Amino acid sequence: MTTTVNSMAAASEWFMHHSTESVICECGACKVRAYTYPEAVTFFSNTVNNEDPAAAVEVPDNELIYLATPYCDPDPAVKELRFNTVNRAAVQIMNEGHHVFSPISMSHPIALAGELPGDWSYWESFDRVMLAACTKIIVLMLPGWALSVGVTAEIKIALEMGILIEYLDPSDITVRA
Fold first, then answer.
1. Distance from C-alpha of 150 to C-alpha of 127, rounded to nearest angstrom
2. What does the pLDDT profile of the chain (177 residues) look like in tens digits?
3. In the chain, which ranges are continuous DSSP H helix?
4. In 3, 136, 166, 175, which residue has its Cα 20 to 30 A from 39's Cα atom?
5. Which domains are delineated in the chain?
6. Residues 6 or more apart whose Cβ sits within 8 Å of residue 25
7. What is the pTM of this model?
């Protein structure tokens, strides 16, 4: 369940009582528009410490969005479905006028061509470099995203680097195959 609020104070208050759900803050000052409990704890603790969340809202002209999604699965058909879905999400984001880097869009065909591993331990150093170049991360919430070793690590790294985080529900992808 997702709840929408219109102030950081309301979002913070909401999380004090609903730690297992998510909230969307539409106040315009939030660094992260959609929160789940773990991400909100960090952000709201910074806000309480008198840091100005509005300072992080401006996106520079040279923005680069990192599109995170789960990938690994023992079933190759699931990996292929995830690859195709993230590609459609990347097209949608690009059609909206943004620059996007999708690690799965790039690494999936390379891994297949070179018989490279597809797990986080292999791609972590590369993804860290790419995250450092990005101004925002969008997490495509495909089934398993919250349990994905790679996606949870990418979110953690983004938080450490102060990168904006947004979440995209797959049902919001309008580009069709």
1. 9
2. 445 555 555 555 555 555 545 555 555 554 445 555 455 544 544 444 444 444 433 444 678 999 999 988 899 999 999 999 999 999 999 988 899 999 999 988 888 888 888 778 888 888 999 999 999 999 999 999 999 999 999 999 999 999 999 999 999 999 987
3. 8-17, 37-48, 76-95, 103-114, 120-133, 149-161
4. 175
5. 2-56 (no CATH), 65-172 (3.40.50.10400)
6. 4, 5, 6, 7, 8, 10, 11, 32, 33, 34, 35
7. 0.65
List of residues 6+ apart from 157 with CB closer than 8 A: 127, 128, 131
25, containing H or E segment:
strand 22-25
**Cα–Cα distance between 153 and 113 in angstroms, integer?**
26
Q: Within a 10 A sphere around the Cβ of 113, how many other Cβ atoms?
A: 8
20 vs 11, 17, 26, 30, 95, CA distance in Å?
A: 13, 9, 20, 20, 33
